[in-house]
Amino acid sequence: MQVTFYGVRGSIPTPGKDFVRYGGNTACVHVALQDGTDIVLDAGTGIRQLGNQLIGKSSPVHLLLTHNHWDHIQGFPFFAPIYQPEREIIITPGQTSLPEHDQILRQMQGSVFPVPSSALKSNITFNVLPDTTESWQLGDAMLSRLPMNHPGKGSAYSITADGAKVVYMTDNELYPPYKKDTDFLSFVEFARDADLIIHDAQYMLSDMPGKSGWGHSVAEEAVKLAMACNAKSVALYSHDPERTDDDIDAVVAHCQTYIEAAESSVNLLASAEGLQLSL
Ligand SMILES: [Zn+2]
């Protein structure tokens, strides 16, 4: 299994010289399986570059959406495979509180975008699973999902294949002030023994309580989750748009002190555009 980051930024893209090393595109991660299956996590602006890679193939694209906030769907109209005739695009929507499964297509209509979704030549279908569905098979992979704590809700995903497990949890507030959909121990169970957890770390404890309830986690708690579930690696994700490259370096250094204090062996990194991990 190969995991490649195409967009790591939360909320809004951040071009500019202070954001070059970690990247400014919004949420998108590509998971390539050994059997050739392409799984795409979220369709933020990072998906444009991924599309330029995938257009060289003709096999189906499996897009898993956490939710429909703009920074998770905005890149879809610029994802080249959707313009390929007969290309199979299978979209699994997130478990959002409003049942708007095709919202990603409805951003391509009216005065909002010049090409209506009805003009797309690809074969786009929605894999709308019953709310009770927790796990399902895709090629050689076993997929699982879990509701997240976020305004409007959403889904976390786990992908187990090729002898590895990757868990993708964004946007997720581990300790929200509102009623939780999932508690910390359930997240621990979901991500147990993962080779890699990609978790929302948009804020830090020092940002609180001002941003409590905004639907994102603090980096320190994302690291605690990784340690609690015995993960091999944790990638801090959904970087705050105000956080420069140097700021992110400081977040990692700060969180590393938690790992050392706990005498944990978890490998800590900050998600970065172009970073590729083989699991
Ligand atoms: Zn969101």
Strand-helix topology:
Layout: E1 2-7, E2 28-32, E3 38-41, H1 47-54, E4 61-64, H2 70-73, E5 88-92, H3 103-106, E6 123-126, E7 135-138, E8 141-147, E9 155-161, E10 164-169, H4 184-190, E11 196-200, H5 219-228, E12 233-237, H6 245-261, E13 267-270, E14 276-278
Parallel strand pairs: 3-4, 4-5, 5-6, 10-11, 11-12, 12-13
Antiparallel strand pairs: 1-2, 1-14, 2-3, 7-8, 8-9, 9-10
The protein binds zinc ion.
Zinc ion binds near residues 67, 150, 171 and 215.
Summarize the model shown.
By secondary structure, this protein is an alpha/beta fold. Helices cover 18% and strands 25% of the residues. The radius of gyration is 18 Å and the shape is globular.
Q: How would you describe the overall organization of this protein?
A:
This protein is an alpha/beta fold and 279 residues long. It has one domain: Ribonuclease Z/Hydroxyacylglutathione hydrolase-like (Metallo-beta-lactamase, Chain A). 18% of the residues lie in helices and 25% in strands. The chain has 6 helices and 14 strands. It has helices at residues 47-54, 70-73, 103-106, 184-190, 219-228, 245-261; strands spanning 2-7, 28-32, 38-41, 61-64, 88-92, 123-126, 135-138, 141-147, 155-161, 164-169, 196-200, 233-237, 267-270, 276-278. The strands form 2 sheets. The protein has a 7-stranded mixed β-sheet, covered by helices on one side. α4 (184-190) links the parallel β10 and β11 (196-200). α5 (219-228) packs across α6.
Computed over alpha carbons, the radius of gyration is: 18 Å
CATH class membership: Alpha Beta
The portion of residues forming beta strands comes to 15-25%
Return the CATH topology. Metallo-beta-lactamase, Chain A
Instruction: Choose one word for the global shape.
Output: globular
Order of helices and strands: EEEHEHEHEEEEEHEHEHEE
Q: Kindly state the mean pLDDT as a whole number?
A: 97
The tally of helices reads: 6
Number of domains: 1
| Head-to-tail CA distance between termini | 5 Å
| Helix-strand category | alpha/beta
- Could you tell me which ligands this complex binds, including any ions or cofactors? zinc ion
Q: Based on DSSP secondary structure assignment, what is the total number of beta strands? A: 14
Give the low-pLDDT segments: none
Classify the helix fraction into a percent range: 10-25%
CATH architecture: 4-Layer Sandwich
Strand order of the largest sheet: 6-5-4-3-2-1-14
Mind telling me the CATH superfamily name? Ribonuclease Z/Hydroxyacylglutathione hydrolase-like
